[in-house]
Amino acid sequence: MTALLALLLAPLFSGTLKWLKARLTHRQGPSPLLEYRNLAKLGRKVWVAPYPTTPLFLLGPIMALLGALGALALLPVLPGLAFKGDFLLALYLLGLGRFFQMLAALDAGSAFGAQGSYREGVVTVLAEPGTLMALAGVVLLGEGFSLSGLPQLGVENSLVLLLALASLALALLAEGARMPVDDPTTHLELTMIHEAQLLDHSGPLLALYELAGSLKMLFYAGLMSLLLPGPKPLVFLGVVGAWILALAYLETYGVKLRYLRLPDFLSYNTLFGVLALLGAIWRF
């Protein structure tokens, strides 16, 4: 159910973000609903594959979308699956999709695809440990070692959960290829990370990547909403709205970090994750 809700919201999320960024620069901007039409238009086009490629080129966007949907299906924002250790499966479903995305970019044989895959791999390696430790910390405070038993923010666990929320927020910027980690609107191949992997894809395959990118950000927003008090669907929508505002402001007035500075930036993700895990173990 959560995956279906996110699938319906994903184009609205990216469309509203583009509209708000335009409004912040005093432009009228496209309609927030335009992304639905853009995806439908891409879906009707014929996709072209560079020669020679293998089935990996086709499998990459499909696995990226399925990985994001599978991870979202495990989030208990709406009733769904729940079992012990489901948070590990959710994170590694996202990782599986990312793995096939990098393989598809390498399969095309272009220099920029290979460069983007290398950089995406480095960002993933830097962001994954902190995210995993932050989630492990909040799961230890909860019940059943499952996403459905996560504690909600309160006086007794405020420090651990705030550290975990900070770690997840940085993970969203890295996973979603947003500033200051990456610039989703850049056309400079030498500075691109995520977009460089999509240059050889077109038509429905590009539409799958666009959807998967928005779904990954909704996954992290959903994770953060599980730690906040209140009815989960309403909290989820509130967190998504807050992230649209934050990203619009950040990408309008912020700048992308140099690639060599990313380890410094993402080290805060690891630091917050480690502190959240230690806080859960030592109960401070």
What does this structure look like?
The chain has helices spanning 2-24, 34-44, 56-73, 86-108, 111-141, 158-175, 203-226, 232-253, 262-282. The protein is globular. Helix 7 (203-226) packs across helix 8 (232-253). It is built from nine helices and no strands. With 284 residues, it is mainly α. The model has no long low-confidence stretch (mean pLDDT 91).
What are the segments in which pLDDT stays under 50 over at least 5 consecutive residues?
A: none
Discrete helix count = 9
The percent range for strand residues is under 5%
- What is the straight-line distance between the termini? 36 Å
Radius of gyration of CA atoms, rounded to a whole number = 18 Å
Mean pLDDT: 91
Largest sheet: none
List SSEs in N-to-C order.
HHHHHHHHH
| Helix fraction by DSSP (H/I, runs of at least 4) | 55-70%
What is the 3D shape? Answer: globular
Number of strands: 0
Structural class category: mainly alpha
Compose a concise summary of this entry.
The chain is mainly α and 284 residues long.
Keywords:
single chain, 284 residues, mainly alpha
Question: What's the arrangement of secondary structure elements?
Answer:
Elements: H1 2-24, H2 34-44, H3 56-73, H4 86-108, H5 111-141, H6 158-175, H7 203-226, H8 232-253, H9 262-282
